[in-house]
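for the writeup, i need someone to sanity check this before i put it in the appendix. the sequnce is what the collaborator sent (i think, or maybe the updated version? ugh). structure was predicted straight from it, no edits. if anything looks off just tell me and ill rerun, i have time this weekend
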Amino acid sequence: MSYPLMLAAGAGLILLLVGSLLGQSSLMTNLQSLALVLGGTAVCGLIAFPFQTVRDMLTSLRIAIRQETIDTEGLIDQIKTLARIRRTQGPRELSAALAGVDNLFLRKGIDLVVDDYDRHQVCDVMEKEFELYFSRRESQISILNTMARMAPAFGFVGTVVGMINVLGSLQDPMAFGRSMSLALYTTLYGLLLSSFLFLPLARKLTEHTKQEETLLKLILEGVMDIAETKNPWAVSHRLKSYVGITRMTSARGIERPASGTPSLLRQLASRVLARSPHE
C-alpha cells in the first residue's frame, strides 16, 4: 500500500473517531474550536519563523510525502557515467554532460571538477553547501515541532475562553452548553492536531532528511573520486558497497559512516536528525 493511500485511510479513521466523540455537537461550535486552535497555531508559526522558511517547509513536505524513497541506484549510475566521461574525454565533455544532471548538488560538484578544483577543495566547498542545506532543513523541522507544542497550548486557551463564557452565562442553559462545548472541544482539537498531524509530519520530514543524508554522502564521495579521475567501475562499486552497508546497518539499528566521509557532514546531519519531534 502506498504512503498517500495509508495517509488517507488514517485520516478517515481519525475523522470517524472524532465524529463519534462529537456526537450531536453544534457544527458552529466545532468550527469555532478548530479555527481557534488551528488558526492560533498557524499564526504562531508564521510569527516565529520567516515566511520563506514556512514556504520551503511546505515544499519539502510535499516532496517527502510524494517521494517515498530516493533512487540511489540511478544516482550511482549517473555518477559512474560522469566519471567515465571525465576519465576518457576530459573536462570539456564533462561540462557538456551537465545538461542531463538534475541534482543541484551533483551539478555544483561537477562544476567544481570542471573548474579544476582538487579533491580537498571540492570537499571544502560542498561541505559549506551541505551546511547551509541542513541548516535550512533544521529550521523547517523546527516549525513543525513548534506547532506541535503550540496546538495543545491554544487548546488550553480555548478552554479558558470557554470557561469564562460559562461563568458569564450561568442563567442561560443554552449558552451554558455552547460555552462548555467550546471549552472542551478546543482541548480535544489541540491534542489531535499535535499528535496526529504536526508530530507525524515532523517525523516524516526527519526520515526524509535521513535518506537525503545518504544521498549527499554518495554525491560527495562520487564527486571527489571524479576529481581524482578514478576508474568509473571502481567508483560505482565503492558507492554501491556503501549503500549496501548503510541499508544493512540501518536494519540493525547501527549507524556506520562511509570510510573517508568528512566528519563535518556527519555532524551537520546528526544535528538535524537528533532533534526530537517532541521538543
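The chain has a mean pLDDT of 80. The two ends are 31 Å apart (CA to CA).
thx in advance!!
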